[in-house]
Amino acid sequence: MHELTVPKMGMDTTEVEILKWMIKVGDNIKKGDPVAEIEFEKATTEIEAEVSGVVEEILYKEGDIVDVGSVIARIKND
User: Fold this and answer.
1) Could you tell me the CA-to-CA distances from 65 to 1, 14, 23, 59, 71 in Å, in that order?
2) 20 to 30 Å CA-CA from 69: which of 29, 39, 45, 57?
3) Can you tell me the distance from the alpha carbon of 33 to that of 36, in angstroms, rounded to the nearest whole number?
4) Which domains does the chain have, with CATH numbers?
5) How far apart are CA 67 and CA 27, in angstroms?
6) What confidence tens digit (pLDDT) does each residue in 53-69 have?
7) Where are the beta strands (DSSP E) in the chain?
8) What is the number of alpha carbons within 13 Å of residue 14 lying toward its C-beta?
9) Which residues contact 17 (CB under 8 A, 6 or more apart)?
10) Sheet holding 34-40: strands in order across?
């Protein structure tokens, strides 16, 4: 099981907002697929899947504020 975390986005960034999920539980994803759009310090970016597999769990909903480094989803590896 792979845990997808919020990456460090800048020296001063401590939390991000999840703007949009591009996946749902049960989806098959490939490494590099966009999984979520996040906002930090008034900028937006996409988080990409680090592994291929099946989305097992999404831990936060759109609009949630999440600390950098937090686990936001779990992916069952191929």
Assistant:
1) 24, 10, 18, 12, 12
2) 29
3) 9
4) 2-77 (2.40.50.100)
5) 25
6) 999 999 999 999 999 99
7) 2-5, 15-21, 28-29, 34-40, 43-48, 53-58, 65-67, 71-77
8) 1
9) 38, 39, 40, 63, 64, 65, 66
10) 43-48, 34-40, 15-21, 65-67
Closest CA to 57 of 21, 22, 19, 24: 24
User: One-letter amino acid identity for 53?
Assistant: G
Q: Is the distance from CB of 73 to CB of 38 less than 8 angstroms?
A: no
Q: pLDDT 10s per residue in the chain (78 long)?
A: 999 999 887 778 899 999 999 999 999 999 999 999 999 988 899 999 999 999 999 999 999 999 999 999 999 986
